[in-house]
Design brief:
Structural class: alpha/beta
Number of domains: 1
CATH topology: Aconitase, domain 4
Order of helices and strands: EHHHEHEHEEEEHH
Mean pLDDT: 91
Strand content: 15-25%
Low-confidence stretches: none
Length: 165
Amino acid sequence: MKFGGRIWKFGDNIDTDAIIPARYLNTWDPQALAAHCMEDADPLFMKKMRPGDILIGGENFGCGSSREHAPIAIKAAGIAGVVAKSFARIFYRNSFNMGLPIFESRELWGLVEDGAEIEIDAGGGVIRIIGGATEPLHIQPVPPFMQELIADGGLMNHIAKGKAK
């Protein structure tokens, strides 16, 4: 699985309320959630971003509540994936369950600014900064099973396709 896009950079401890504010949790509709993605972190985010863009976060991205709404909002907004220095454990698992690709890289955050473009090779474990002078960054490759979850659109779709063992 390879993809790339323009990045939007956020800092440390971006919690689930910054990703999708609690005032919008009265729905499970992915498009309604997407309309408010990252609204409290950057009120203009949804006006600026384009489908295929990538979020870059600092430490502890997705901390806070265990709500699945956060990765659903990110994915439905058209974000191709998230790269952070580290993730809150439940957000990490919820992301794969919802089919949102996420990757840990401690180095990337300090090497890019908003608008930079990157390319991610999930299976090969490599991030490249397009037009950047740095060498490719090595990340933990996404295991084949987790790549299947992402390709199928999440755990429930994977199970519905009869692929779960």
